[in-house]
Amino acid sequence: MATVECRNIRKCYGDVEVIRDFNLSIQDHEFVVFLGPSGCGKSTLLRMVAGLEDITGGDLLIGGARINDRDPGDRGIAMVFQNYALYPHMTVRQNITFGLERAGTDKAEIERRLAPVVDTLGLAIYLNRKPVELSGGQQQRVAIARAMIKTPEVFLFDEPLSNLDAKLRGHLRVEIARLHKALKSTSIYVTHDQLEAMTLADRIVLMNQGRIEQIGTPEEIYSRPATLFAAGFIGTPNMNFMQFEVEEGALRDGLIHLPAPAGAQGQVTLGIRPGSVEVLPEAAEDTLRARVERDEFHGETRLVSLQCGTHSLMASVPAHMALREGQELHIRLPEEKLHHFDTKTGQRLD
Ligand SMILES: Nc1ncnc2c1ncn2[C@@H]1O[C@H](COP(=O)(O)OP(=O)(O)OP(=O)(O)O)[C@@H](O)[C@H]1O
């Protein structure tokens, strides 16, 4: 059973604490993505699991055994890095099998393991080439093959696609998902790319400044972000935010009058995703007047910047809805699509 458990994990560089009291249980076969902005600590955490960084405090368990002080080679893990780090003087075949040869695995066993790995990653025709004769995507496939052939219990991926162009990234993303299904190993994948996280993860661990902001399935985090940070980080285009002071149980300004969530006090941030803002040609009882500031054509949709009283909002509308800059129109903010946060603490209110 390749469960991974982090219990009160801490990491300090000198006096600076970069990971604080990190707790997480990863199940056998689960695909967990550490997602967050640059510097939030996701790589440091992954490197601690791999044994490439000391753990300052707490316990790290793989398969139920505490492995804080175990050598990287004895942890049952394999890691795929952002820089493929292939040996330039070796062929593809040698790069893939080198680790097993060094460990003294016998030749027949290496050949037995090589065939399905090479097959799965479409590398058979490149086996005798040197890395310099391969594209970036092919080189990263070799790096994945090198990790796969070790048949690890836990796969660790550190931004493996970030050096590739967008098309190749999409392609390899699908392959990694397929591989995970076939191999059934537990996987931890680090990225700052929310699309990768949303498409690959069983669960996302959203991190910010060395702490967990939210843990959940992609759907859970998208539809019920637990904090303002989670709401702003997940979703493209970004969620709209509007600031209000709670007055007599309502969020109110010259134009807007909405009920405040039960018990809300002080400042509340109202959030709504651009795709949830309804744009209407006619006024109705629950619509608000808005003016078009800018209209961007995005293919299937248009992204419209609106001014609604003192609030700036984005709305994503079908592309056929041609709008002019300066045009007056009417919008509706459906109540069931609103998110409320305490502005001071950043915590979700409803
Ligand atoms: N060897 C080190 N010495 C001191 N500080 C470090 C060291 N390595 C990382 N840090 C700091 O630890 C914090 C977390 O870094 P880490 O590389 O884990 O972030 P990250 O979320 O993976 O970012 P990125 O996406 O940019 O790689 C950062 O503030 C970084 O400056």
Mean pLDDT: 93
Cofactors and ligands: adenosine-5'-triphosphate
Classify the beta-strand content into a percent band: 25-35%
State the distance separating the first and last CA atoms: 38 Å
Q: Work out the radius of gyration.
A: 25 Å
What does the overall shape look like? elongated
Q: Kindly name the structural category.
A: alpha+beta
Number of helical regions: 8
Low-confidence stretches: none
Strand order of the largest sheet: 6-7-8-3-9-10
CATH superfamily of the largest domain: P-loop containing nucleotide triphosphate hydrolases
The level of helicity is 10-25%
Main features:
350 residues; alpha+beta; Rossmann fold; OB fold (Dihydrolipoamide Acetyltransferase, E2P); 2 domains; 6-stranded mixed β-sheet; 8 helices; elongated; binds adenosine-5'-triphosphate
Overview of the structural elements:
This protein is of the alpha+beta class and 350 residues long. The protein folds into two domains: 4-230, P-loop containing nucleotide triphosphate hydrolases (Rossmann fold, 3-Layer(aba) Sandwich), CATH 3.40.50.300; 237-342, OB fold (Dihydrolipoamide Acetyltransferase, E2P) (Beta Barrel). Helix content is 24%, strand content 34%. It has eight helices and 20 strands. It has helices at 42-50, 92-102, 107-120, 136-148, 166-183, 194-200, 218-223, 228-233, and strands at 4-13, 16-26, 31-35, 57-62, 65-66, 77-80, 154-158, 186-191, 203-208, 211-216, 240-247, 250-252, 257-259, 267-272, 278-280, 288-297, 301-308, 311-318, 328-332, 339-342. The strands form four sheets. Strands 6-7-8-3-9-10 form a six-stranded mixed sheet, sandwiched between helices. Strands 13-12-11-14-20 form a five-stranded antiparallel sheet. A five-stranded antiparallel sheet has the order 15-19-16-17-18, with no helix packed on it. A hairpin with a 2-residue loop joins strand 4 (57-62) and strand 5 (65-66). Helix 2 (92-102) runs parallel beside helix 4. The protein is elongated, with a radius of gyration of 25 Å. It starts with a strand and ends in an 8-residue tail after the last strand. Adenosine-5'-triphosphate binds at residues 13, 18, 36, 38-44, 192. Residues 13, 18, 36, 38-44, 192 line the site of adenosine-5'-triphosphate.
